[in-house]
Design goal:
Length: 253
């Protein structure tokens, strides 16, 4: 099933602070969306009608600074909670968790997120791919390169974006192949990623992308060529990209 990201629009009542508050007490989360229930402890989240309830009660926030060790333990518990939600039967909880784990940036989430690349829904897959890029571990490179072969454009987009964040030159050649993808969103993200990696091998492919039928792709390719030129100047003190390839793109009539 091919589901574009954002296809499910729900009012997600549980903010990150709510998650943190309940993790603070060692309690989990119970979520209910359209009849689907996720149970992880004593709290209940109802999505859609914005109802939140906690039968045990939520203590007020402390005004004094808290011990860094305690805060770190709470953060770890929060990450564990998000990892558990990756297996939740509710789709919205899974993609929210996949996204949150990228923000958390904890390496313990790598293996669960790699598994999430095989989630039945692309909503989860592409956010897992982006989060793997945000975490920034080299173990994610090969799985993301493989994910770029997906027939679903959104997973290809997420994988390309994640590889751009990782900045690993192993992704250069596979990303160059995506510059000719049928989907313009994929081509644009591949061009952006190549600029982030700043590998000179991408120059010929990006130069061809200056003639792409889509203006966003052309502009992104131009910016990436400039980024590669700057990176080359930092390394050697002089650019190696011919000036003709750095000419500003023109809109096609």
């Amino acid at each position: 099933m091919n589901v574009s990201p954002g296809a499910i629009i729900l009012k997600f009542s549980s903010s990150s602070s709510f998650f943190s508050q309940n993790q603070r007490d060692g309690r989990g989360i119970t979520g209910k969306v359209n009849g689907s229930v996720s149970r992880m402890g004593g709290c209940r989240i109802r999505m859609g009608d914005a109802e939140l309830s906690d039968p045990k009660g939520v203590p007020s926030r402390e005004s004094e600074p808290e011990d860094p060790g305690i805060l770190e333990e709470r953060r770890k518990e929060q990450v564990k909670g998000y990892i558990a939600l990756l297996k939740d039967p509710n789709l919205t909880f899974r993609w929210k968790a996949a996204e949150a784990l990228g923000t958390a940036g904890d390496s313990t989430a790598i293996e669960p997120l790699l598994e999430a690349l095989n989630d039945p829904f692309v909503d989860v897959q592409w956010l897992a791919a982006k989060s793997l890029g945000r975490i920034g571990d080299s173990r994610c490179v090969e799985p993301l390169i493989n994910a770029m072969k997906s027939p679903d454009k959104w997973l290809r987009v997420g994988a390309a974006w994640g590889l751009g964040k990782l900045k690993d030159p192993r992704a250069t050649l596979p990303l160059i192949e995506l510059l000719t993808d049928k989907k313009k969103t994929v081509r644009k993200n591949a061009a952006w990623a190549l600029g982030n990696i700043a590998d000179e091998r991408a120059v010929p492919g990006l130069t061809k992308s200056l003639q792409d039928p889509d203006e966003d792709v052309r502009n992104t390719a131009q910016k990436s060529l400039a980024a590669i030129e700057r990176a080359q100047e930092r390394r050697t003190g002089s650019p190696e990209i011919p000036p003709a390839q750095m000419t500003k793109t023109r809109r096609k009539p």
